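Page 47, continued from p. 46.
Same chain as before, 302 aa.
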Amino acid sequence: MHPWIESYSDYLEVERNLSPRTCSAYVHDLLSFCAFLRQNADEDADLAALLGAVTRTEVRRWLAQMRRSQKKVSIARKVSALKGFYAYATRRHGLEFNPFDAVRRPAVESRLPGVMDVDGVYHFLESISGSGWMERRNLAMFELLYSCGLRISELIGVDVADIDFDKGQVRVVGKGRKERIAPIGSKAIHALQRYLQQRAEVVKEGEKAVFINRYGSRITPRSVQRHMKNLLLAAGLSSASTPHSLRHSFATHLLDNGADLRAIQELLGHVSLSTTQKYTHVSSERMMVEYDKAHPRSRKKR
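Result:
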């Protein structure tokens, strides 16, 4: 990679503290833009010169090309990556002009993952039976996901040392490598304890991960997704639900039962409350109850 791109990658990882996946996506977007610039440039043109000579006209041409082949959500991320790169380059490499400064990210419709109702979650979890280590691992995985509202990356990142059974807590590392402590419910604690008793029989020597695959190594996100889909089908439930649906269900069920939105924000590990507001949805029934309790001219106060 060009030194500018390498230094930007280091900046994202070290100073911005972004996840490796986000850093990789941003660098990929920047390299894609560089390929676009080279389409109409001399083969031996210096990349720094090309990046520094970009005009708003070229940016508009690039956006037009993106709109023909990319979804809005992908374009929005690419714009963010390039706005960030040029802001960085003007500070660190002396560029005088940021051609993306006035570019707005396209509006992206917020899509929420499907939520499972309480009965559906109970049915799903109670259908995971068996005394083998894999069955007990599956139950412990999905109990913990729902109990703590974890992201799938947080779940597979949990090490044995991160769980404090005495306090009923787990330490998780979320987006931006931010740590938080999440409380664990009694059902999840019991499932974890039963699973860990058998994990020792199959775990690879030196492996720290709580959740392991058949080879004794840390399980992958794809494996967790596949196991959930198979278990949903076996339980007679829609296979459209995903591990992220359990996180969304966790937040929604807490909200529907009166939990404070800021408490949910902390439990989910969201930096901004607005993220939590978009992530959770309030049932119409609860919304009307809250309206009737609070509004001076509600239906019940007329």
